[in-house]
Amino acid sequence: MTSQKLAVPTGISIGLPADLLRNRPDVRYYEAILHQQVATVGVDEASLYPSISLNGTVSNTDSVNGWSFGPSISLSIFNRGALHAQHDVQVSVAKQAEIDWRSSVRGAVEDVQVAQSNFTLYQEQTELLSKAAASYGKALALGRNNYRNGAMTLLDLLDTVRSEASAQINAASAHNSAVKEWASLQIAIGAGAGFSDKKDEEKGGATPNILEAKQ
């Protein structure tokens, strides 16, 4: 029995670039709605699609409320001193779309932080339990030698075998949990979503491909 059947990436930087969250379908959805609602206000095409980015890194030690989204989205339509009355409703809807987008990002940050925390926990448990299993393995080897030499009873040897097997199972369980949490972390950051924003690419600010990003 072994606790290393499934590989878990090692040496991972737990602080993830926040802009990777834009690969999540829910974040992209609300971002698209934001663009759409701004368009209804009649913003000029050149400023219709601002370069939205999420600055900084997301760490499980950060407070969600204290984490910054980076610079605010700059849309002149939100800051005009005088608006035509017929545009007031569209402007309100566009502002709500921005609020919804920010809410989706906060939810994404929370998901990432939970997955980060759980993954780190099970990684540490795997390391400790693997060391314990190795120690029990050495004890079992010594016990078998003592049994052959008549220095240990069969009952004591069987107890050692059970202890070693239990230690291996615990290590394997923690390892498998780490694998699952790693998968949860990839889902939380939208790995594999494969989105491509042509307008961002034209502006030189394409959403990074997280499958190629260094972890």
Automatic annotation (TrEMBL):
Chain positions covered by the region annotation Disordered: 196-215
InterPro entries, per database record: MdtP/NodT-like, OMP_efflux
SUPFAM superfamilies from the entry? Outer membrane efflux proteins (OEP)
Task: Report the superkingdom from the record.
Answer: Bacteria
Q: One Pfam family this chain carries?
A: OEP
User: Recorded GO terms, molecular function?
Assistant: efflux transmembrane transporter activity
Q: Which family does it belong to?
A: Belongs to the outer membrane factor (OMF) (TC 1.B.17) family.
Q: Under what name is this protein listed? A: RND transporter
- Report the source organism: Marinomonas profundimaris
